């Protein structure tokens, strides 16, 4: 069976948690596409060459999920050459036999417009900053400033900007518990699979 769940949305909205839960629930493969951009940023040097040479082991790095690499990833992600180098791998993953969940910024709009389910997972900047701060600690005001800066760059870039696909279902997790958000996403997938 080929079945793609595309999950897009801003940083710390809950995409990863929902993506993992859906993959476990339905037995689908899961790809956190932010890791691709983080790994490119972590390699340094020529970003386009780094993206072209990316291998699976580059995604395993334990230190890829820091705030600083999130910012650096958002900066290399504006480069059309970097994005182009990562398209084929993501498309193959999305349409592989067995079902797949991908979360990112442009999955439903660019990588897999034919996805059977498109979710746009969002939450207020304050809620997202608070969640990220609980994970990373430090100064919460700075975390909020970083979230807003990253939103601005990811939504404002010319190449594949973050926005909901026209046919995406918007899930605002600001006032939902993790369980409620996951259940809402499960319901959407189940309804589509039964259709
Ligand atoms: O989801 P994340 O925080 O790990 O993503 C890090 C950055 O990578 C994000 O700010 C923008 C970029 N990104 C992207 O441009 N397209 C994607 N599909 C995923 C991430």
Q: What is the CATH architecture assignment? A: 3-Layer(aba) Sandwich
Q: Determine the strand fraction and express it as a percent band.
A: 5-15%
Outline the biggest β-sheet: 5 strands, parallel
CATH class: Alpha Beta
How would you describe what is shown here?
- The chain is an alpha/beta fold.
- The chain is built from 9 helices and 5 strands, in the order βαβααααβαβααβα.
- It has helices at 15-26, 34-43, 47-52, 67-76, 80-94, 107-111, 125-136, 140-156, 178-194, and strands at 4-8, 29-32, 100-104, 117-122, 169-172.
- A 5-stranded parallel sheet has the order 2-3-1-4-5, with helices on both faces.
- Helix 1 packs across helix 9 (178-194) and helix 7 (125-136) packs across helix 8 (140-156).
- The relative contact order is 0.22.
Write the layout of secondary structure elements.
Layout: E1 4-8, H1 15-26, E2 29-32, H2 34-43, H3 47-52, H4 67-76, H5 80-94, E3 100-104, H6 107-111, E4 117-122, H7 125-136, H8 140-156, E5 169-172, H9 178-194
Parallel strand pairs: 1-3, 1-4, 2-3, 4-5
């Amino acid at each position: 069976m080929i079945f793609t769940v595309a999950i897009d949305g801003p940083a710390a909205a809950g995409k990863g948690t929902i993506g993992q839960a859906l993959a476990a629930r339905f037995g689908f493969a899961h790809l956190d596409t932010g890791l691709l951009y983080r790994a490119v940023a972590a390699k340094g040097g020529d970003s386009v060459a780094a993206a072209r040479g990316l291998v699976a082991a580059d995604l395993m790095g334990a230190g890829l999920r820091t705030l600083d690499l999130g910012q650096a990833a958002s900066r290399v992600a504006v480069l059309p050459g970097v994005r182009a180098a990562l398209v084929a791998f993501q498309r193959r993953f999305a349409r592989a036999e067995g079902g797949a969940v991908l979360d990112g910024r442009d999955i439903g709009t660019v990588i897999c417009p034919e996805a059977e389910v498109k979710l746009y997972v969002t939450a207020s900047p304050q809620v997202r900053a608070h969640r990220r701060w609980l994970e990373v600690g430090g100064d919460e005001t700075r975390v909020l400033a970083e979230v807003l800066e990253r939103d601005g760059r990811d939504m404002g870039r010319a190449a594949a900007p973050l926005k909901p696909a026209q046919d995406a279902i918007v899930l605002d997790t600001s006032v939902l518990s993790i369980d409620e958000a996951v259940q809402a996403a499960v319901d959407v997938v189940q309804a589509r699979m039964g259709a």
